[in-house]
Design brief:
The protein has 109 residues and is α/β, with parallel strands linked by helices. The chain has four helices and five strands.
Length: 109
């Protein structure tokens, strides 16, 4: 089981240092691109890298995706591999077996 970070900012000028500050990871993936779509090189690499039992940590929901459709697709893709997705800011966790209605409500807001 590995602890994996996915970090994203929209431009090269923005600083990623505060995202997931204080946590340690086995592997980190960082994109400096808009979140307007899921076609981001390090996001794709992270999804390819993730294995069963891994934990993917993201600072906040908007760092993973900007649209609900992309967000749902990405979480489904990661959790279908047996990994867990944690959103630090929102204190939300999703895994393949987690169908907590309260969490799903926050996920869709």
């Amino acid at each position: 089981m590995k602890k994996i970070a996915y970090i994203r900012v929209s431009t090269f000028e923005q600083n990623t240092a505060r995202q997931l500050d204080g946590l340690t990871f086995d592997k980190s993936f960082e994109d400096k691109l808009s979140g307007s779509n899921a076609n981001r090189p390090e996001l794709i690499n992270m999804i390819d890298y993730v294995r069963e039992g891994d934990q993917v940590w993201v600072h906040s929901i908007d760092r993973l995706a900007r649209s609900l459709i992309d967000l749902h697709k990405l979480i489904t893709e990661i959790t279908s591999k047996g990994a867990t997705v944690h959103f630090k800011t929102e204190s939300l966790t999703f895994d393949g077996g987690d169908h907590n209605p309260h969490q799903m409500l926050h996920f869709q807001c």
